[in-house]
Amino acid sequence: MNIPVELPVVYTTQILIPGFILKIRLETLKNSDLLNYLYQDLKNTESTHMIGIIPLIDIGKVDNVIGTVGLIQSVIQIGSVSEEFFLLVQGICRFLLNETISVEPLKIVKITPIDNFKILSGDENEKTELKVEFEKTLSNLITYSEPGIINPLINKNFQKFLKQFPLHLIIEYFLKNIIQITPSDAYEILRATSLNALVKFVINWMKQKTIKENNSSTFDKTGLLSLPSAVIIGSNTDKKKILKKHLSPELEEIYTAIKNSNMPAPVYDVIIKDFNRLLKMNSFQSDYSVYLNYVNYVVNLPWNKSTKETLDLEKARNVLQLEHYGMDEVKKRIIQFIAVKILNPERRGPILCLIGPPGVGKTTIAKAIGDSLNRTFKRISLGGINNFSDIKGHRKTYIGAMPGRIIQAISQAQTNNPIILLDEIDKMYKGPNGDPAAALLEVLDPEQNNSFVDSYVNVPFDISQVMFISTANHVAGIPQTLRDRLEIIYLEGYTVEEKMKIAENYLIPKLLKDLKMNELHITICKNTINNIIRKYTCEAGVRELQRKLEAICHYIAVEIVENSDKESKNYVITPESLINILGNEIYNINNVLVEKSSERVGIAIGLSWSPTGGLIQVIEASKIHFHKNNSQLVLTGLVGQTLRESVAIALNWIQSFAKKNELDINNCCIHVHLPYGGLKKDGPSAGITIVCAIVSLLWEIPLKPMIAMTGEISLKGDILPVGGVKDKILAAYNANLRTIIIPEFNMKDVNSLPENIREDLNIIPVNHLKEVLDVVIPGGLAFLQNPTVNLVPRSKI
Ligand SMILES: Nc1ncnc2c1ncn2[C@@H]1O[C@H](COP(=O)(O)OP(=O)(O)OP(=O)(O)O)[C@@H](O)[C@H]1O
């Protein structure tokens, strides 16, 4: 195929690699010139219909920019006037960008195609070494990896497989059929500009998947393993004793493992003693299995096995950038951490703690940190733990004794320097059997953790090389002593726009890959994603959104399977089709109330906070003419004690304010309701919203439209600070509310909002209820104080 030397190029978040097809989503408005060009190009049968696809991460770079020449398979437009269109592009070959020829209307560049992937380069020694390493790593992978990674047919006949096919085809087979390519892998594969580099990539991948990689490589080097010298001297007699006795295959295996374990001398002595005790026991004795399991477990801990860490800023930046949208603060901190480690590899870094609402990517970014450092990743869920032994283990003599979670994670990782994620550190609590937080203190203390003693293992194990990262939803749930050891990074919820980008570029491609669905089967329009976010989810993160997208894919899967003849059909999911797939809209009620708030009296828009992030909480007030208890207030909407008190304070303040302004409100009964009656609500921050709703009702004037508010009130009308302001502002922003009233004390929270959002908002700081009323009442405070200043027509309740 002839590759042109000049090509129009586009930058895309997803990465196209040769031999693969990619569906690219582009905005029509921004890419209208490209669209016109493509239509002309497709009409012209002589033309080759090619464009260059360059990773967005390389935008602005001039040197060493590698892209892929893509053959346009089709241009998909949904409807006649659509905000977006899709390109189906097949990756043909890599290219090196030489120079930019023009920028407008299309970016055209001069390229040099790179197409040398059939043979290895370099001298013969180099080539043989690479081949031998590939074969050895594949053999290790087959022997030690978890089942299912490699096709069983290759497992059986891998020598034949290696002989039968040339190396470049084997590599291609790996890339297309075995490796689950992540975005950062795709970038690395794209930038591998020779067969040698691709082989190295596959070797590295196989090493990561080989559970006992370090174990086998130490065997292979010399075939000999030395014991610590102190033990050799001290253990001669032990050896004799052991050799005298005939060992069962089980014990023989443990003995070999002891010899090869490379454990420190004092530990070796302890274990040999236990092993000897085992030899003296009869296998029918009740203790026998306890000692057998114990010795077996301890011996197989990764005493001297560590993964070779990659400290490469460029690679780390790419992995973090390509696998997660946004999260700049965390990414910046990780890059600093790696830079410090490059300068001083011995330095122990801080323990990062990522705090944020559910589904904002805390766990997955921690995993990406593991990938960027090439360290094994293990997650320990601490949610619900209430026992000291969960962290520190039980003594082996207990019935059903087990090591603690930390040692279990290290044992599973089979390396002494994994990244361990302590997930949900705020959800542990103290139970009758001790405080797990106290045990964690020892784990995280750099002074103590080089000789951490798990009660089950009962000998010191050095966990100082482990990198701990923790996550939590609320800082308040973390015990103070633990909090002091952590470097806290806060993650905010996402805006609708950010969620859309995450859905388009991360969640949908990942889902289709996980479900092994062909990306060509399904097209989810931008408007559809927007509708799902607004009407079917109510969250700060993207977990619910991910579930809804998954539900759509499952729905299409049934269609594809039931109508196998339609397999090549592209299912387009439009906003209208959502009702069939996801059912009725779930979260639109609040939006309706928000929109109606400007037409009716007695409605104010408040902001509340829940563990899932900020929420819009409309508050309604209406008059009822009598109530059976002669009380002045009816309060509904599953409200708690603090909220109840806020309403009482609000009424009290309004009474004195009304009196001063000669309005008699003593003879009416007011009903205050907080919609979503099924959800419990509490807290003091609804104070100002309640006052505004009741004032609007009593003075019979609708509030100015689309103003959201939060703030606690005192009896004298002062506004007190509240919590969760950042999340609340984000919720207001996502609901298209751009004017937000907050307590002046909380203005510091506004600084940590992303700049583009801050600029788009009109945030009004207030100190007193009168300032609030001056903002929300048409005509301002003057209207309330002198109702004859009738600026707007009064409406009826
Ligand atoms: N910025 C982002 N870019 C790409 N994907 C994201 C981003 N944020 C979240 N996700 C995706 O959302 C899903 C949920 O993320 P994750 O499980 O890491 O959330 P979490 O913050 O750890 O939640 P929890 O507090 O409930 O444990 C994952 O599939 C993750 O990949």
UniProtKB/TrEMBL annotation:
Gene Ontology BP terms: protein catabolic process; proteolysis
Lon N-terminal domain sequence ranges: 4-210
Matching InterPro entries: AAA+_ATPase (IPR003593), ATPase_AAA_core (IPR003959), Lon_bac/euk-typ (IPR004815), Lon_lid (IPR054594), Lon_proteolytic (IPR008269), Lon_Prtase (IPR027065), Lon_prtase_N (IPR003111), P-loop_NTPase (IPR027417)
Keywords: ATP-binding, Hydrolase, Nucleotide-binding, Protease, Serine protease
Enzyme Commission number, as recorded: 3.4.21.-
Enzyme class label: hydrolase
Entry-linked SMART domains: AAA, LON
Pfam family of the protein (one): LON_substr_bdg
Domain named Lon proteolytic: residues: 598-779
Catalytic activity, as annotated: Hydrolysis of proteins in presence of ATP
GO MF annotation terms: ATP binding; ATP hydrolysis activity; ATP-dependent peptidase activity; serine-type endopeptidase activity
Residues at the active site: 685, 728
Protein name per Swiss-Prot or TrEMBL: Lon protease homolog
Gene expressing this chain: lonp2
